Amino acid sequence: MYLVCTFIEETMLRLVILLLASSCVTLCSLFSREYHLINEHKTWDGARAYCRQNHSDLATIGNRDDLDILRNMTNAIGWTKDTWIGLRMGTGFSWKWSVGEPENIAVYTNWAAAPGSGSCGSVAVGGKWLAASCGSTLGFICKEGKGLALLVVSTEVSWWEARQHCLQRGTDLAVVRNQAENQMLRSMFNESKAFWVGLFRDEWQWSDQSDSSFRSWEIAQPNSDGSCALLNMPNTWFDRACGNRYPFICHTEKEVRKQTIVKVEMKSNSDLNDPTVSEAILNQIQQKYGMVKLQWRIQPDGKIFHKKEKKEIKETCKNKVKSTL
Questions:
Q1: Could you tell me if 55 and 250 are in contact, meaning their C-beta atoms sit under 8 angstroms apart?
Q2: What is the CB neighbour count within 10 angstroms for residue 282?
Q3: Residue in 68, 52, 141, 139 with CA at minimum distance from that of residue 100
Q4: Angle, CA of 9, 277 and 27, to the nearest 5°
Q5: What is the full per-residue pLDDT of the chain (325 aa) written as tens digits?
Q6: Are 209 and 52 in contact (CB under 8 A)?
Q7: Containing H/E element for 37?
Q8: Whole-model pTM?
Q9: For the domain 32-254, what is the CATH code?
Q10: Which helix (H) or strand (E) holds 11?
Q11: Cys-Cys with 173: which of 28, 198, 217, 247 at CB 3.0–4.6 Å?
């Protein structure tokens, strides 16, 4: 699998989003993974040693797209065996988004003063977040497609059941990346109850130290049967004792980094250098270009946007194409 950088020249992207300033935005790819199915029965540690010697590592599954690739690969050869992947119980908890790459770790948070001790997150009255037991029953909010559209479901179910419902729709539970998105999400329901979003925490870690938060556990899994993750066809995972012997999946990771700087022209009476405003604009552009990673180009004075003549803007952005392998 190769994720090739979307390479857009300056003249191909001219965004006018009601602004009166200009800046540059960097587009770059991240990495690609190739999966290799190994039909040899080994313990989890033995499988990892084999993968590290012959490929990169035991398989990391970064998001639903990766899982679909694996499912298509195994379906093509009629593979039905349980198979090790590179997920193992570690130490330490961190809050994550269930959708996986590129939204892994929860950077923006809006916890209530006493968020709770549970391992699954919800949004409550006033937009505050609460941590509840994942088995508690609440309504939930799904992402819809690749944009900012959301679906609010009032039926009260556990966090796992809520996520399963979203996955069956081809999406995932909602992600909240900044204050503006949090306010938009909260405005979608008027009830006093909390609603599940895709926030959770666990101690499971990938063998290659990836911070991918994507999980595809069977409902009620993991259930303390073991400390290593097993892919059960077609796409759900179980925890099993790491000393058991199963076939396994390796991945080979090839990093390809390319970037180009693209001029963005905008018009507005707002302060575009306000972090909330600039982040909201970047998120809108990010939604359009999917897996391409975007970031603003910070000017020497620490600002993103400047009011400049058209000629000066061209001098800033023209021919600033970089490639890094």
A1: yes
A2: 18
A3: 68
A4: 25
A5: 223 223 323 222 333 333 333 444 444 445 678 999 999 999 999 999 999 999 999 999 998 889 989 989 988 989 999 999 999 998 877 899 999 888 888 888 999 887 778 899 999 888 899 999 999 999 999 988 766 788 999 999 999 999 999 988 888 999 998 888 888 888 887 777 899 999 999 889 999 988 889 999 988 788 888 999 999 877 789 999 999 999 999 999 776 555 566 666 767 777 777 877 777 777 777 665 555 567 777 776 777 777 755 544 444 444 343 333 3
A6: no
A7: strand 31-42
A8: 0.64
A9: 3.10.100.10
A10: none
A11: 198
Cβ atoms of 35 and 59 within 8 Å: the answer is yes
How far is residue 158 from each of residues 25, 63, 119, 219, measured CA to CA in Å?
Answer: 40, 22, 12, 10
Domain range annotation of the chain: 10-29+257-324, 32-254
Q: What element of type H or E holds 53?
A: helix 44-54
CB–CB of 173/166 below 8 Å? yes
SS3 at position 154: strand
Structure tokens at 14: 């001219």
Amino acid at 290: G
Closest C-alpha among 81, 68, 11, 90 to residue 40: 81
C-alpha 257/C-alpha 307 separation (Å) is 31
Residue 110 · residue 179 · CB < 8 Å: yes
CA–CA distances in Å: residue 11 to residues 266, 294, 304: 15, 17, 20
Determine phi and psi for 273, rounding to 5 degrees.
-85, 0
State how far the alpha carbon of 104 is from the alpha carbons of 127, 189, 200, 242, in Å: 21, 26, 11, 25
